[in-house]
Here is the input.
Amino acid sequence: MRNKTLITVVGPTAIGKTVLAIKLAQHYQTEIISSDSRQFYKEMHIGTAVPTDKELKMAKHHFVQHKSIVDAYNVGDFERDAIALLHNLFEEKNVVVMAGGSGLYVDAVLNGMDDFPDIDPKIRETLNLQLHSEGIESLQQQLELLDPETFAKIDTANPRRIIRALEVCIATGKSYASFLKKQSQKRNFSSIIIGITAERSIIYDRINRRVDLMMAQGLLEEVRSLKAHKTLNALNTVGYKELFKYLDGEQSLEFAVSEIKKNTRRFAKRQLTWFRKKTDIIWVENVTDFGKITHIIDSLLNR
Here is the structure.
């Protein structure tokens, strides 16, 4: 697959990745791979900011609401499926677009995944129950004891990251860090990564307005319909866990909404921290003219 290029759009939540990805897909007459792990699940629509029906018709999307929340689907599965799809798409197209704010899933496609063993799903279920019954502090203490190296490196405020590391430790008796590879896998396509950014105040304002829009669109009703499944890993995410607490009578609706905004802002900050560590991302402001962006990409494609 010589001269094949994957254009990846990254950035914090609510910054405009979907809009830019669609414009790029239309411009280069190609299709979009979603690397947003929150948008995989068909039962989660409003709270994950899935592209609208109109947006989905503007360009063909892959990996959007293709799984159920009850399905076991992880980053390794996504890497396998995405690489297989890219192989097929590149048979006919020279360029494919990928977009999403899940840094780990982006890295999996671009650089390959570490070789972790298969984990018994019951271990994750037990850890999720521990999270809900004892709180994240219990998991943090357990990980610090079992794998201090990983504890010092990962975002310990993110329960999904803690649970992933713990399940490897518990299943194998080895540290999560011991399975991390030293070198990236070579891909048979080139990569161009466009990062969208803005001043923090702009990002936070966009997040706050998006949360208000989600609530107006019926996020509470969506979360209420999923309450029976609240212990599933897919639902242990911002926008859902806060409203589950409201439905359980633990906090007011006003406070729950404020928590969604706060936790989404924190999530955006972590996203930027993750992507800022990458040296191969071309950063553009969210108001950058589309023609300027395609000029940058074309210069790289023709290099």
